[in-house]
Amino acid sequence: MTEEDWLACADPTPMLAFLRDREKEHEKRLRRFAIGCCQHAWNLMPENGISLIIEAEHFSEGIITRYQRDCAVAAFRAVYGHFGADTPILRAAYRCKNIPIDVYTANIIASDIAVAVGKAADPKPRSTSYATAYNAERVAQATLFRCIF
Fold it and tell me: Tens of pLDDT along 86-105?
C-alpha cells in the first residue's frame, strides 16, 4: 500500500490488512482503534456495553486488575448472554475485552459498529439511509485509523 492509497482509503479494512504482518508491535494502537470505533457510537451503546469497554481499556493500560475486568465481563454476560444478544453494537463491546486485539478482531469491531450505525439510521440494510450512515461511519473509522497509525 502506497502513502497515496493510505491517505485515500475510505474503509479501514485494507489499512488493517496492510498491518497484519506487524500486528504484534501495533496491538496497543489496534486496541485504541477498536475502542475509538465503539466510543464513536456511544449514543447507541447500552450502559453495560460502555462499562465493559471502559474496563477493557483500563485493564489493557494496567489501571485495573484482570479480576476487575473479568467482573465487568461477567456483569455483561449476565445481562446479554455470551455474545451480546446478537446485536452488532453489543458484539463489538464484548470483543473489546479480548487481550490482545489483533487485526481481524479490530476489523470485526469496526464493521459491527458500522452496521449498528447503519441500522440506527434505517433497519433495512438495502435502504439508502442505511448505506449512507454505514459508509459515513466507515469513512470516519478510516480517518480515526490514520490518526492512530
Answer: 788 888 888 888 777 888 99
Domain hosting 65: range is 22-148
Residue 17 domain flag: no
Question: 94 in a domain, yes or no?
Answer: yes
What domain count does the chain have? 1
- Whole-prediction pTM value? 0.83
Q: CA 31 to CA 59: how far, in whole Å?
A: 11
Q: In sequence order, which ranges of 61-87 are alpha helices (DSSP H)?
A: 66-80
The number of beta carbons lying within 10 Å of the beta carbon of residue 144 is 18
CA 122 to CA 70: how far, in whole Å? 34
Whether 132 maps to a domain, the answer reads: yes
Report how far residue 59's alpha carbon sits from residue 97's, in angstroms, rounded to the nearest whole number.
9
Name the more confident of 148 and 28: 148
